[in-house]
């Protein structure tokens, strides 16, 4: 999913470590130095590097500017040739059958089977076209906060390695301690006492007790009876689709999961960018990142309110109130 268009999914990272003085020039130079190298016309199986968020084929041209104001913006591109196991087995067995028929032998030795498998695999890899994966990154150089626009765990791990290799500093997922019951609390808070920002749990919530999950759908302000029953008997809300309107702002729509804090299917308020060429592109980058930061700032504010209650002596009593609100006192297992 792209930083610059449509609904997106992302996770938050934080940079751990010190950069050299004059980091803008250093970061720009390092992104270009670790630019992606195309393997379409080679037999290489794997390639990884940085490309422009505007063009996956641009990894070092004079038009490529990875620094926009206080932000580093780039895409991690991975190209990989892979052969499905079933395809490899098919052609290996086919070659074994051919050799046995040609040599009039009942079976093939283990050494021969290994040689055939490696030879067939090499031939198939040479014929395969590398499949690309492109993941956008936006790095606020003032705060050290990083948006990675992928919720894929494997892609996140590869990103951490590439980031370390490129910049010499580590990047790690932002942590939200004791976040398990955040959405359960937020649901109750938004439906009873209200929140600073306008919050509506809409369309879908997912509750779980760690072993069994219940997905419930509905419309705005629907209480989701099945989910409420689950909360009443001790389950927690793991995922919720939320409409969020910050004070003085426009509405966001998103799906949020805890405790991982994965933002999925995020729909931003409509924006209007004027200008042309590079100025329009920079304006779009700034506006989109500003909105992502506005969204996470609002969620972080709500989370801070939850933590204040969560760490207070009244938390156990608060959860009892939430269970009662959900109707747990009227429900038996």
Give a concise summary.
By secondary structure, this protein is α+β, with helices and mostly antiparallel strands.
Describe this structure in words.
The protein has 3 domains: 8-81 and 129-173, no CATH class; 85-125, no CATH class; 182-330, no CATH class. Strands 1, 2, 3, 4, 5, 6, 7, 8, 9, 10, 11 and 12 form a 12-stranded antiparallel β-sheet that branches. It is globular, with a radius of gyration of 26 Å. Helix 2 crosses helix 3 (110-127) and helix 6 packs antiparallel against helix 8. The protein has 333 residues and is α+β, with helices and mostly antiparallel strands. The chain contains 8 helices and 12 strands.
List key phrases describing it.
333 residues; 12 strands; 3 domains; twelve-stranded antiparallel sheet; alpha+beta; disordered C terminus; globular; 8 helices
Strand runs, count: 12
Describe the global form. Answer: globular
Sketch the major β-sheet: 12 strands, antiparallel
| Distance separating the two termini | 42 Å
Mean pLDDT: 86
β-sheet strand percentage: 15-25%
Radius of gyration: 26 Å
What series of H and E elements makes up the topology?
Answer: EHEEEHHEEHEHEEHEEEHH
Class by alpha and beta content: alpha+beta
Total of domains: 3
Helix % is 25-40%
The tally of helices reads 8
Give the uncertain stretches in residue-range form: 218-222, 329-333
Give a topology summary.
Elements: E1 8-16, H1 23-33, E2 46-51, E3 67-68, E4 71-80, H2 85-103, H3 110-127, E5 131-140, E6 145-148, H4 153-167, E7 170-173, H5 182-191, E8 198-208, E9 213-217, H6 225-232, E10 236-245, E11 252-257, E12 262-267, H7 277-310, H8 315-326
Antiparallel strand pairs: 1-6, 1-7, 1-12, 2-4, 3-4, 4-5, 5-6, 8-9, 8-10, 10-11, 11-12
């Amino acid at each position: 999913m792209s930083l610059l268009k449509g609904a997106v999914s992302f996770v938050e990272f934080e940079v751990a470590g010190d950069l050299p003085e004059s980091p803008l020039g250093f970061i720009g130079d390092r992104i270009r130095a670790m630019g992606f190298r195309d393997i379409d016309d080679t037999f290489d199986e794997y390639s990884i590097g940085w490309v422009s968020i505007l063009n996956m084929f641009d990894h070092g041209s004079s038009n490529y500017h990875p620094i926009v104001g206080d932000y580093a913006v780039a895409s991690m591109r991975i190209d990989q040739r892979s052969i499905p196991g079933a395809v490899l087995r098919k052609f290996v067995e086919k070659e074994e059958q051919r050799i046995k028929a040609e040599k009039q032998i009942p079976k093939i030795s283990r050494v021969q089977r290994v040689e055939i498998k490696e030879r067939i695999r090499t031939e198939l890899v040479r014929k395969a076209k590398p499949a690309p994966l492109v993941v956008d990154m936006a790095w606020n150089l003032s705060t050290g906060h990083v948006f990675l626009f992928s919720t894929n765990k494997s892609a996140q791990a590869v990103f951490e390695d590439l980031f370390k290799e490129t910049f010499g500093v580590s990047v790690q997922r932002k942590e939200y301690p004791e976040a398990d019951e955040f959405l359960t609390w937020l649901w109750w808070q938004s439906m009873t006492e209200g929140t600073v920002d306008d919050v509506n749990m809409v369309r879908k919530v997912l509750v779980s007790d760690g072993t069994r999950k219940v997905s419930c759908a509905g419309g705005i302000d629907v209480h989701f009876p099945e989910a409420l029953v689950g909360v009443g008997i001790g389950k927690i809300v793991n995922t919720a689709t939320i409409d969020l309107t910050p004070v003085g702002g426009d509405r966001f729509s998103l799906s949020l999961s805890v405790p991982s804090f994965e933002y999925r299917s995020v729909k931003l308020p409509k924006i209007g960018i004027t200008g042309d060429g590079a100025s329009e592109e920079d304006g779009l980058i700034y506006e989109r990142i500003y909105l992502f930061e506005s969204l996470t700032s609002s969620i972080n504010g709500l989370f801070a309110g939850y933590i204040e209650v969560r760490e207070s002596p009244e938390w156990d009593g608060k959860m009892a109130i939430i269970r009662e609100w959900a109707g747990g006192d009227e429900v038996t297992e």
